[in-house]
Amino acid sequence: MHQAAEKGLFHLVEALIAAGEPVNQPDPRVSGWTALSYAANWGHGEIVRILLAAGANPNQRDVYGRTPLLHNMHNGRPRAPEGEERVEFSADTFHQLVQAGAWIDCPDSADGSPLIYAVESGYSECVEYLVAHGADV
């Protein structure tokens, strides 16, 4: 499930869920990331939708205290098909996670928060959204 979510293979993610694969299982190879962490990190919005609908926890932390929203804000770089420009951030994934109840003030072990990462990365739309929705400033 983890590799399928990382690579954007949404049909495989759907098949694994249908076969009973747990959606919140931490990956022991990579600091306890979940499939949702991988999908959020790479901005795979369709997989984020599928996993959330299947009960994925938007607030499950890895060993560094990062949630899928923190992975999206800190990395969030979708893989583009060969020959196409790579997009640097997936606002769709950000909004899906927040609407699913992702904590907007959740710090990681380095005291980074979604707002801090949004400011550092220049994601002004996300900064405005987070501040408007009560993020600690």
From TrEMBL:
Entry keyword set: ANK repeat, Repeat
Each ANK repeat, start to end: 1-28, 31-63, 110-137
SUPFAM superfamilies listed in its UniProt record: Ankyrin repeat (SSF48403)
Pfam families from the UniProt entry: Ank, Ank_2
Keyword check for Repeat: yes
Record-linked PANTHER family: ANKYRIN REPEAT DOMAIN-CONTAINING PROTEIN 39-RELATED
Protein name: Uncharacterized protein
Organism: Aureococcus anophagefferens
Lineage: Eukaryota, Sar, Stramenopiles, Ochrophyta, Pelagophyceae
